[in-house]
């Protein structure tokens, strides 16, 4: 176990994971969203992790919707 503050760069480098699959990263954060006041809650993330790529996600989404639109237009022509 290694304690401290970690960022994305500590877990990934050049698109390659620096931690083996199954590694659990745990963090404790202070939450002040309840009327009862502040409390500490635990968050856990299990590898493998992936960095979001919004441009790639949008390309996939637009291709999906374009295909749906073509299918709908073809059905309307029939």
What topology emerges from the helices and strands here?
Layout: H1 8-11, E1 12-13, E2 16-17, E3 24-31, E4 39-46, H2 54-77
Antiparallel strand pairs: 1-2, 3-4
What would a concise description of this structure say?
The protein has a two-stranded antiparallel ribbon with strand order 1-2. The protein has 78 residues and is of the alpha+beta class.
Characterise this structure:
This protein has 78 residues and is an alpha+beta fold. The protein has one domain (8-77). The chain is 36% helix and 26% strand. The chain contains 2 helices and 4 strands. The chain has helices at 8-11, 54-77; strands spanning 12-13, 16-17, 24-31, 39-46. β1 (12-13) and β2 form a beta hairpin. The longest helix is centred in the C-terminal third of the chain and has 24 residues, at 54-77. The radius of gyration is 21 Å and the shape is elongated.
The secondary-structure element order is HEEEEH
Helix/strand structural class: alpha+beta
Spatial extent as radius of gyration: 21 Å
Q: If helices are DSSP runs of H or I spanning 4 or more residues, what is the number of helices? A: 2
Distance between the termini: 63 Å
Poorly predicted ranges (pLDDT <50, ≥5 residues)?
none
Form type? elongated
Average pLDDT rating = 86
The major β-sheet equals: 2 strands, antiparallel
- Strands across the major sheet, in which order? 1-2
Helical content class: 25-40%
Query: In total, how many domains does the architecture comprise?
Result: 1
Approximately what portion of the residues adopt beta-strand conformation? 25-35%
How many strands appear in the DSSP assignment? 4
């Amino acid at each position: 176990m290694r304690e401290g503050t970690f960022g994305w760069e500590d877990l990934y480098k050049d698109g390659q994971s620096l931690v083996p699959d199954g590694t659990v990263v745990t963090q404790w954060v202070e939450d002040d969203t309840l009327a009862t006041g502040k409390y500490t809650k635990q968050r856990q993330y299990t590898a493998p992790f992936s960095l979001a790529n919004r441009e790639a996600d949008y390309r996939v989404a637009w291709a999906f919707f374009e295909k749906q639109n073509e299918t709908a237009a073809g059905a309307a022509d029939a």
